[in-house]
Amino acid sequence: MRGGTGFAQRFQKREYAKTKLFRAEGRGWGLLATENIKAGEFVMEYCGEVISRTEARGRSQVYVSQGLKDVYIIPLNARECIDATKKGNLARFINHSCQPNCETMKWSVLGEDRVGIFALRNISVGTELTYSYNFEWYSGAKVRCLCGATRCSGFLGGKPCGFQTRLMDCQLDIFPVWFFLLTYFPIELVANHLNQQFNHWSE
User: pTM of the entire structure?
Assistant: First the structure.
């Protein structure tokens, strides 16, 4: 289990791994490592505007009406979401893979919930960074996965694995997360699912 203090300091100081954007064929933007990253290392924080679930619901509807191509909204906790659609960092461009080399974890840093990206294994220079979006679609819709992994599941959907929650006292918890990127999904489908998900959280 990783120690808490060192990672908390890297969150606060924004000490991220070196990366660069590139065009991923058929998948929009992607992110490449420009330095070697060791297994277990903190890659970067998933940054954006922290908003309420109610605001997230409203924004998803606005984004639909505006016809935005890329929308990045993830749940942070039971009350809040992170919207990186218009204000965010490079983490929002990390693509999905069925065999990811990174994972998402929720940390509590100085009493605030933060989402970080961590390396699952050693990542060499020039390798694309990926993690599992862990989609769950209540509508039952299936969308073909474009990750290209050797053991690709073929479709995005099904029960999410959840992501790990690390507190500063190193207690471990599980909290589900869903990533909505319109490289894979039509905006109308995403908006419909967001509304279903918000209703599910409110039950």
Answer: 0.72
DSSP string, the chain: ---HHHHHHHHHHT-PPPEEEEEETTTEEEEEESS-B-TT-EEEE---EEEEHHHHHHHHHHHHHHT-S---EEE-SSSEEEE-SSS--GGGGPEE-SS-SEEEEEEEETTEEEEEEEESS-B-TTPBPEE------TT---EE-----TT--SEE-S----EEEE-TT--EEEE------TTTS-HHHHHHHHHHHHHHHH-
| Domain membership of residue 13 as a residue range | 4-202
Each of the 203 residues of the chain gets a pLDDT tens digit; together they read 343 566 777 777 778 999 999 998 877 889 999 999 999 999 999 999 999 988 988 888 888 788 777 778 888 888 888 899 889 999 999 988 889 999 988 887 788 888 899 999 999 999 999 988 765 444 445 567 778 888 887 766 544 444 444 433 323 333 334 444 444 445 555 556 556 555 555 55
Structural domain count, the chain:
1
State which amino acid sits at residue 198.
F
The CATH number of the domain where 177 resides is what? 2.170.270.10
Instruction: Pick the closest to residue 115 from 164, 161, 53 (CA basis).
Output: 164
Half-sphere exposure of 72 (CA within 13 A, CB side): 20
